[in-house]
Amino acid sequence: MSKPKRIPVDRVQTGVRMEKRLVKVLKGLAECCDLSLGDLLEGICLHALEGKSPFSESTLGQISSLKQVYGLDLTAADSHSLEG
Q1: Could you count the other beta carbons within 10 Å of the beta carbon of residue 26?
Q2: Is residue 5 a part of any domain in this protein?
Q3: Is pTM beyond 0.85 here?
Q4: How many other C-beta atoms are found inside a 10 Å radius of the C-beta of residue 25?
Q5: Is 75 left (phi over 0), alpha (psi -120 to 50) or beta?
């Protein structure tokens, strides 16, 4: 199988703030997938902007385990209620 064509992009540093446990889960998932956190977030965002799920069933299982490890009990329904 051939490697996909590489697409050059310009990347910028961001100063985003995120919920601590969510960041831990994302960092853990990036490690499991052998990706940088930035690469993982790019993939999630690109999928979301097309209305597609970025995760396979297997990856969702990994996410569930990481959420338990880091005590992440927030859901998408909570996203408009967070403060801090």
Answers
A1: 19
A2: no
A3: yes
A4: 22
A5: beta
